[in-house]
Design goal:
The chain is mainly beta. It has two helices and nine strands. The longest helix is centred in the N-terminal third of the chain and has 23 residues, at 2-24. The protein is elongated, with a radius of gyration of 30 Å. Mean pLDDT is 81; it is low at 14-25 and 29-42.
């Protein structure tokens, strides 16, 4: 009986000291093997952005002519109030400087018909800077774009200053993709040498977007 108790004591001590010896030898036991990974949960836990994070965005939607000032017929916005609702699409790139501030660039195309059934084409190219708010899986970027916009209507061609302010809302679907809505205001001044013929156009933009994060 004493030998049996002695054997059990020795076995207990041997089992008890195995993790201790493993830790002393630098071989830590794997305590995380039963913790479920992201795919086991079937969801995505978003984290804060950091410097170097990048986004490629594709957008498509409509532009609505809003406020126009000027009545010249020698520039593209000839016949103020004659432009109809148009279509637009864009590609943009953003680079985050920290968890909220980003810079980037955007190229966009817009087309709209006139009451005379002619087509107006505008191709804004801008540099962008913005600030993004993040609430769990919802992201709200605000951006300002400055650049120039080549424009064409019939035989008239013009390229001038372009300003665009944007407010957006996105849902972060997973680590790679987010989807959302953009609203933007365009300001397109046309100021030829004869300033009396200047026209100042304003458009409202509403687009749906897909963003790829990398």
């Amino acid at each position: 009986m004493q030998r049996a108790w002695a054997f059990l004591c020795i076995l207990f001590l041997a089992v008890w000291t195995v993790p201790i010896h493993a830790q002393e030898e630098g071989e830590e036991p794997d305590y995380n093997e039963d913790i479920p990974i992201e795919s086991d949960w079937g969801g995505y836990a978003p984290g804060l952005y950091s410097r170097g994070d990048q986004i490629f965005m594709m957008s498509a939607g409509v532009t609505i002519p809003m406020v126009f000032r000027g009545k010249s017929r020698n520039v593209l916005f000839a016949g103020v109030g004659q432009i109809k609702v148009g279509g637009t699409g864009s590609l943009s790139y953003s680079y985050f400087l920290n968890s909220h501030i980003f810079v980037g660039a955007e190229i966009q195309g817009m087309f709209a018909s006139t009451r005379g059934k002619d087509m107006l084409y505008v191709v804004p190219i801008t540099a962008r800077v913005g600030y993004q708010f993040v609430i769990k899986r919802f992201e709200f970027p605000l951006a300002l774009g400055l650049g120039f916009a080549p424009q064409k209507l019939l035989d008239f061609n013009y390229a001038g200053f372009f300003l665009k302010s944007t407010a957006s809302a996105f849902f972060r679907f997973n680590a790679d993709w987010s989807f959302g809505l953009n609203t933007a205001w365009w300001w397109i001044p046309q100021t030829p040498k004869d300033r009396s013929k200047s026209v100042y156009g304003n458009f409202f933009e509403a687009t749906l977007s897909a963003r790829y994060h990398f």
